[in-house]
Structure formats: C-alpha cells, structure tokens
Design goal:
- By secondary structure, this protein is an alpha+beta fold.
- About 60% of the residues lie in helices and about 20% in strands.
- α1 packs across α2, α2 runs antiparallel to α3 (about 40-110) and α3 runs antiparallel to α4 (about 115-135).
- The chain starts with a helix and ends in a 10-residue tail after the last strand.
- Residues about 1-10 and about 200-203 have low confidence and may be disordered.
C-alpha cells in the first residue's frame, strides 16, 4: 500500500523520483567503496552521511507535499460549502413566502373547499422544496419558547414578561443552518424578566 502511495506522489511531483534516483546512486557508490583503507572508510562514511541527509530531505518534502494536497482538498470543500450556503440563503425567502401563505390562507382552507385545494397544492410544492433543502444538509430551527441565544437569533424587540430568563416569545422568521453552520439567524421577539425594585430605597 505504501509503495502505491509513493508511486502516486512521485507521479505528481517528479522531484521525488529524481531525489530517489540520487539516493540510489549514492547507495551504489557506497556499496562499491573499499572499506579496507582509511580513504575508503572516510569515503564510505561521507556517502552514508549524504544518504541520511538526502533521505531526510525526501521524507520532509513528501510530508509537505502530502499536507499541501490535504489543505488544497479542504479549501476546495470549504469553498463548495460556502457557495452552497450562499445559494441556499438566497432561496430562503421562498420558504418564508410559504409560511406567510399558510398563515393567511390556512385558517380559511377548512371552511372553503376551493381554498383548501389551493392550500394542499402549495403544501405539496413546499414539501418538495423542503426535501431538496434537507438533502443538501440544510436544517430549519424554530426557537419559540427557547432561551434567547444571540449567536443564532436576532432580537427585533424585547418585552417584559413572566419569565425567569430571556425567552423567545414569538418567531417572525425561522433560522437555518447547513451542516451546523448558520445560514440565517432566526428573527424573534424576546420576553425578558420584569424589572424589580429590590434594593431601591424610598426617599
């Protein structure tokens, strides 16, 4: 398996093959160098040192090249995800329009059969579009009744209420995420704890 990886890397970067050929050449010289003389021993040690140095350089270059390929693949995937997020973000108003439609005509559908047929048809279209979004990794979230989280919610206004902590009391627009990354914050009204007069002394 490692031989296949090395061969693939050498095909992508011919410098690997060139350096490997140089190492092989020095190995051949080392094997042919005489060891029974001082000069031969010194030459052999010199060749061995060169082999160690070149082998280290080659390993470092292969590691750097491998890291470069990984970074390039990661950046490409991130760019694709950002493009998808922008495209899906541009389509979110269409989903908002469905919500507005159902808010207006949904209650009337039960009383008038003609309106019910239209509402049912629009509901089918909404379901198809929602399925496409879901398959693309888009997640809808409706924070009604949840604790207010400014990292994923936009507060349009805040009103005092019977709550212990800031809580979403109304949702104007649902929020959306793609693979955990926020596409659009939910637009909400927040109920906040009522102000108290504890600690205030009367004059």
């Amino acid at each position: 398996m490692s031989e296949t990886k090395d061969t693939h890397n050498e095909e992508l970067n011919p410098q690997f093959a060139t350096e490997q050929e140089e190492i092989d050449s020095i190995n051949a010289k080392a094997e042919a160098a005489p060891e029974n003389t001082a000069d031969g021993a010194n030459e052999l040690q010199l060749l061995k040192n060169q082999i160690v140095s070149l082998t280290g350089d080659l390993q470092r270059e292969r590691a750097e090249f491998s890291n470069f390929r990984k970074r390039a693949m990661t950046e490409k995937a991130q760019q694709a995800a950002q493009t998808s997020a922008r495209l899906l973000g541009d389509l979110l108003p269409a989903l908002d329009a469905f919500d507005q439609f159902f808010a207006s005509y949904g209650p009337k559908a039960e009383a008038e059969s003609a309106i019910k047929a239209i509402v049912d048809g629009v509901a089918l279209i909404q379901k198809q579009i929602t399925r496409v979004f879901s398959e693309a990794g888009v997640e809808e979230f409706n924070p009604l009744g949840q604790e207010f989280d400014p990292s994923i919610m936009e507060a349009l206004t805040a009103q005092e209420g019977d709550v212990d902590k800031e809580t979403v009391s109304q949702v104007f627009q649902k929020g959306y995420r793609i693979e955990g990354r926020l596409i659009r914050a939910a637009r909400v009204i927040v109920a906040k704890p009522k102000a108290t007069n504890e600690g205030v002394q009367s004059v």
